[in-house]
Structures are given as structure tokens and as C-alpha cells.
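Title: Comparing notes on inverse folding

I've been comparing how different people in this forum approach sequence design from structure. To keep things fair, I'm posting one structure and asking everyone to reply with a full sequence. Here's the target:
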């Protein structure tokens, strides 16, 4: 998500922090998350005067599209009822306001907000797709390395015998003192060499529990 992070730190993204992020989170939670909204429903419970029972206040429906979000954002922030958001009504920085106010007239309209939201959502989608593609390519590269390391006859495949021999070699790499056993210290030492010392204890435990290339020899 480095691309998204870069976008959100630009002048245009100051508005995305206030507007686009709220739209995305509105799809995943029942809490109110429009610009200027605290995310908590004010006075969620009301006390019955006669029965003494509590009645849960029904939350507002959440926006599902950029158009719906823009409409609700205007309703939530338009304090003077002129159908747009002025600078004094905008809950954000001047740079964020300018990023949305594309015609520079000093007001954010529903149309401008809709266009801006669509643009930000498209950029976010592209960044997510790029991240998924990069992850898939990395997995493929790692799998290819496993095949190449075990494929002694270079036919582009790993046979059963090559699989077994490859794991024997891997076991020897882990068994640094050559006593025929792999201890916790040896496994931690190997993991530390591969991933470096910059990981926390919880991540180290996860790496120890999943050593990777070492697998149990299958039965035919």
C-alpha cells in the first residue's frame, strides 16, 4: 500500500483522509463515519417516560457509492442549508479543501465531491490490484527457486527422489553441529539469518513455527 500512503500524504490526499477513508470505512462498520462525524451515534438510547424501558436508536443507513457518500456528506456538513460546503463548514485543511473544490469558487458541491471520490476510489483500487499482482509474482518466484534448487536433472520439475534429496540437504543446513537433530536454537539461528534481526518476538515465533522448505517425507 505504499502507493496509497504516498497519495494520502499529498495535498490532494489530505482531503482523502477526511473524505475517501471515511467512505471506505463506512462500508465495513455500522458506526457513522462521515466528514466531521465522530463515528459515535449521539444519544443512542432513549428512556421511555411511561414504561421505563430503553429503546435502541436506529442508526442511519451507510453510503454504498461515491454518489451516496457525497450526498450524505453535504447533508452532514452544510450548516447554512445552501446545498454545498463552504470553507467555514469544511472539517479539514485548506489544502484538502482546494483538492476537492476543483473550480476554485470557495465551495465544495455534491458534484465535485462525487468526482473526487470516484477518482480516489479508482486510484485505491489500482493500488490494491498492483499490490496483489506483486504478491503473486513474489510467490511464483519463491516457488520457482524451490524447484530450481531441487531439480538436479534440470527438466523443470521436481521428482519424488529430488524432493527427498532436497529435504535431506535442507536438514543438513539446519543441523549445524551435525548431531542428527535440529534444535530450537539451530532453527532460530537459521531463521534469524534469513529474515534479519529487525523482527519482533511474536514474528520470530511465527517464523519458527513455519520453517518453510523443511517438510515431512511423504509415503508412496
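Reply #1:
Here's my take.
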Amino acid at each position: 500500500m505504499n502507493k496509497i500512503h504516498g497519495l494520502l500524504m499529498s495535498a490532494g490526499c489530505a482531503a482523502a483522509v477526511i473524505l475517501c477513508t471515511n467512505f471506505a470505512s463506512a462500508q465495513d462498520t455500522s458506526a457513522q463515519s462521515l466528514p466531521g462525524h465522530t463515528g459515535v451515534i449521539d444519544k443512542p438510547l432513549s428512556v421511555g417516560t411511561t414504561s421505563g424501558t430503553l429503546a435502541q436508536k436506529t442508526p442511519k443507513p451507510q453510503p454504498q457509492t461515491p454518489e451516496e457518500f457525497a450526498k450524505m456528506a453535504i447533508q452532514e456538513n452544510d450548516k447554512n442549508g445552501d446545498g454545498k460546503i463552504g470553507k467555514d463548514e469544511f472539517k479539514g485543511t485548506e489544502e484538502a479543501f482546494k483538492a476537492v473544490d476543483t473550480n476554485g469558487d470557495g465551495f465544495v458541491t455534491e458534484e465535485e465531491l462525487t468526482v473526487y471520490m470516484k477518482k480516489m476510489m479508482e486510484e485505491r483500487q489500482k493500488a490494491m490490484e498492483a499490490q496483489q499482482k506483486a504478491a503473486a509474482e513474489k510467490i511464483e518466484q519463491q516457488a520457482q527457486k524451490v524447484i530450481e534448487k531441487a531439480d538436479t536433472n534440470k527438466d523443470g520439475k521436481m521428482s519424488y527422489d529430488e524432493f527427498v534429496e532436497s529435504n535431506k540437504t535442507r536438514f543438513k543446513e539446519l543441523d549445524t553441529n551435525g548431531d542428527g537433530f535440529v534444535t530450537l536454537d539451530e532453527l532460530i539461528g537459521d531463521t534469524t539469518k534469513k529474515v534479519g534481526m529487525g523482527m519482533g518476538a511474536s514474528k520470530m515465533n511465527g517464523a519458527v513455527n513455519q520453517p518453510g522448505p523443511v517438510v515431512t517425507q511423504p509415503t508412496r
